[in-house]
Each structure stands twice: as C-alpha cells, then as structure tokens.
Amino acid sequence: MCERNDPAAVAEGLRRRLAEARRTLADGAAEEAGARYAAVLAEAEEYEGREGAGAYRLTAERAAALLGLGESALESGELTDALGYFELAGELLADEPAPARAPVLRGRAVAHYLTGELRYAVHLLESGLAELARAEPQDPDALVLLHATAIGPYMDMGAHHHAARAAESALALAPRVSDPALVARAHRSVARTLLAQGRHAEADASLATAAGLYDRLGLRTELAHCHWMRGYVRAQAGQLAGAEEELRQALLMLGETRAALYRSQVAVELADVLHRRGSSGDAAELLAGVLGDFSSERGAVHAAAAHRLLGIIAEDAHDTEAAEEHYVRALSLLERAGAAGDLADLCRLLGDLLRRSGRTEAALDAYRTGLGHRTAPGSTTLGPAQL
Q1: Cα(383)–Cα(235) distance, rounded to whole angstroms?
Q2: One digit per residue, pLDDT tens: the chain, 387 residues?
Q3: What H or E segment, with its residue span, contains residue 329?
Q4: Which residues pair with 143 in a beta bridge?
Q5: Contacts of 170 (CB under 8 A, 6+ apart)
Q6: Where are the alpha helices (DSSP H) in 178-259?
Q7: Cα-to-chain-centroid distance, residue 37
Q8: C-alpha dihedral (11, 182, 249, 25), degrees to nearest 10
Q9: Contact criterion met (CB below 8 Å) for 198 and 376
Q10: Distance (Å, rounded) from C-alpha 90 to C-alpha 67?
Q11: Who's near 293: CB < 8 A, 6+ residues apart?
C-alpha cells in the first residue's frame, strides 16, 4: 500500500496496480482483472473522499480503472455492464482532448457492435474519427484504434468501400504508431477487407504479422482472436481443414480465458466448417451448446448465423417446417442489426425454401427483402458468400 498522505505516491501506486491489471487482462484472466480494476477504483474514490485530500483528484486513474472494468466486462460477455463502465469513464474524461477519449469511444462502439447495433457503433466511430481529424496535432495511435475498430461493423453492414478506406488509413498510419499491440490489431482487422478483395494470401500474411506481434508481447487473448480470424479467412477461401484447426485453437484458448461470448461466436463458425466437411450432427450439437448464450441484445449477428446454419441442416434432413422457423428467426435478428451481407444470403435461402414449397408470393417477399443487400467474400459471418 502506498503512502496515503502523499498524493503523488498514491497516484503512482494506483498506476502501478493499473499496469498489473492490464497485464492480467492480457493474459486472459478477465474476472481477476476486473477485480483488480475495481480495487483500484475503490481506493481512488476513497482517497478523494478523505478529509484533507483537498482539491487533489485522481481523475485519470479512476477513468483508467473504469475503462479496464469495461474491457474486462467485454471479455466476459457482460455487455450491459461494459457499456455502463465506458459511459462513466467518458463522463470523467469529457473535458479531455479527443485522443484521450478514443479508447473509451472504442469500447462503447465494440459493446454496441456485439449487441447487434451495427449502425450506432459506426456512428460512434465516425463521430470520433471526425473529431480526431480536427485535433492538432493528430494522434496516430487514436486514429488507428478507431479506424481498425470500424472495419468489422462496416463489413457486416455491407459498406465494403468504407471498410477498405478505413483499412488503408490504418495501414498508412501504422508506421507512426507507438504501441506494437495496436499495430497488430490493425493488421488483424485489415485481413477482412483484403479477403473481400480476393487477396487471400495477403490477408493470411497480415494475420501472420499480427500473430507474431501478439506472441512476442504475450497477449494471449488477442492471439486467440488472431487464430479466430485466420480460421474465418480459411473458411471463406474453402480451406476447411485449416479453418477447423485454427477455429479449434481459438476455441480452446478462449475457453481458457473464460471469454464466454467470443467463445460462443467462434463455436458457431466452427459448426459451419464442420457442416461443410460433412459432420452435420457434430455441428448441430455444437450449436445446441451455445445458442442459449446469444440473444437479440447479445451477439445478435452470430445468433442469426446459428439459426441460419440450423435451418440449412433442417433442410438437409427434409424438415421444412423447422428450417423455415430458423430462417425467420435469423431474419428478425439480422434486420434489427443491419448486417447486409448475412441478410441478403438469408433472404436467398428463405426464398428458395418457400419457392420449393410452392409458396411463390411468400418467396417473392423474401427475395424483395434481400434486394439491395449485396453479399461479397468477407461480408458474411458464415461463408462463402453466394455471388
């Protein structure tokens, strides 16, 4: 415990414990990290409330603890809690320059993205980027952080041009970034835009660069996400054996870190690969084990992907009624989220099912819903996209 009558010593001690909490979170121990951040926050608040503390404030330390609590909650899949922590951190930093607020903005955007609110996540990121563009001097770390975060929502919405532009900006700024973990995140994120452009080898190389950086930095959770993205890239390219290997590795690592929501998302993508490799029974069993982890407010896009895949499996088993039920549930989730690539693909599946059942008008309605939504490689959660 630091000297409690010396404000500078209190702040230094709290910053040291914040660094330890960040290390714990990077190791994948989100629950333990959250407890560490909570202890720092409580001590900072207790110190500020002490008689004799005067005007000394630990605003930066409290905000960092709240940001860490938000990140820990994201890893655990507690999205409502995460949003609450990020909003409190944002209030503390409201008068700070835009670069100082960028990590909080990124956290809010990711939380909304994971709930299925793609448009609002993009709105937050675009607003933050516009503010950063007006700031002088410009902060490359903050810009790369938000550009890299925007790629996923853009791709899910079918805004491929915007995603490509964000990727180009992130890579152009990367040589000026001071944080190697942020450089790795940029390389991991741009892989999806490279895939959409048919540049599979470059996407894989970008992920290899990110994985190497994460490995050297000892960032186990981020490395798991790299395996996940490599599995996604290989699944989209039809390299199913390699995709299964990467996704199983990600599933194992995320299981060790108790990243429940992310692990369930990987399980859905692994189920798709298993189905495509002829193991539909194993795929259905895997989906049954994770479907309860999702809702319209928690992992909506992957919840829809799970229902889509269960619908395909039901169709293969000639259970038309069950297939239609799964497709309709997926459609509802995707319309709310605005995931254009997945929505277009699903409308094709539902329309074909209804047409084969002789329900022509209903099939046309499904096709009309899908019109205007264009799929492309890298835009669908489970692939490959039907062009």
Answers
A1: 7
A2: 445 567 788 889 999 999 999 999 988 888 999 999 999 999 999 888 764 555 567 899 999 999 999 999 999 889 999 999 999 999 999 999 999 999 999 999 999 999 989 999 999 999 999 999 998 889 999 999 999 999 999 998 888 899 999 999 999 999 999 999 999 999 999 998 998 888 888 998 999 999 999 999 988 889 999 999 999 999 988 999 999 999 999 999 988 777 788 999 999 999 999 999 999 999 999 999 998 888 878 888 899 999 999 999 999 999 999 999 999 999 989 888 877 778 888 888 889 998 998 998 988 888 887 775 555 556 567 766 554
A3: helix 320-337
A4: none
A5: 143, 144, 147, 148, 151, 186, 189, 190
A6: 180-196, 200-217, 220-236, 240-257
A7: 22
A8: 10
A9: no
A10: 9
A11: 77, 260, 261, 264, 299
Q: Locate tokens 């194992």: which residue? A: 252
Q: Whose CA is closest to 170, among 194, 191, 146?
A: 146
Q: Give the pTM.
A: 0.83
- Distance, in Å, from the CA atom of 212 to the CA atom of 221, rounded to the nearest integer, reads 13
Three-state SS for 50? coil
Are the CB atoms for 289 and 267 separated by under 8 Å? yes
Q: What's the residue count for the chain?
A: 387
In single-letter form, the type of residue at position 309 comes to L
Tokens 């560490």 found at: 36
**Residues 306, 308, 314, 320: is their CA dihedral positive or negative?**
positive
Asked whether the beta carbons of 62 and 92 are under 8 A apart, the reply is yes
Is the four-CA dihedral 33, 37, 38, 40 of positive or negative sign?
positive
d(CA 128, CA 130): 5
Q: Which residues contact 78 (CB under 8 A, 6 or more apart)?
A: none
Task: Answer for the pair 104, 67: CB distance below 8 angstroms, yes or no.
Answer: yes
Instruction: Check if the beta carbon of residue 59 is closer than 8 Å to that of residue 92.
Output: yes
Extract the tokens encoding 184: 């790795």
